[in-house]
């Protein structure tokens, strides 16, 4: 598993369970990437608004290949 970093534009989000989301990013370096953001829909998370569509952010994701991810962290 490798760690990838890139500026990203959020295209779409999908609900996954009670507190998780699947986020589709468009990155400068890796193109279109799908990632799972764990516990991102929890009411107590301050970062819940980071993954709204049309948001520009700096994404750091962990993946075996850059197109499909298992974990995601983002900063605006």
TrEMBL record:
GO terms for biological process: DNA recombination; double-strand break repair. Pfam families: RecO_N (PF11967). Residues 1-61 form the DNA replication/recombination mediator RecO N-terminal domain. The keyword Cytoplasm does not apply. Keywords: DNA damage, DNA recombination, DNA repair. GO terms for cellular component: bacterial nucleoid. This is DNA replication/recombination mediator RecO N-terminal domain-containing protein. It comes from Candidatus Entotheonella gemina. The lineage of its organism: Bacteria, Pseudomonadati, Nitrospinota/Tectimicrobiota group, Candidatus Tectimicrobiota, Candidatus Entotheonellia.
């Amino acid at each position: 598993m490798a760690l990838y970093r890139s500026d990203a534009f959020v295209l779409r989000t999908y609900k996954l369970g009670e507190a998780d989301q699947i986020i589709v990013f468009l990155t400068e370096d890796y193109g279109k990437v799908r990632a799972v953001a764990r516990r991102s829909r929890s009411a107590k998370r301050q970062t819940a608004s980071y993954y709204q569509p049309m948001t520009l952010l700096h994404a750091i994701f962990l993946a075996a290949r850059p197109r499909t991810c298992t974990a995601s962290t983002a900063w605006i």
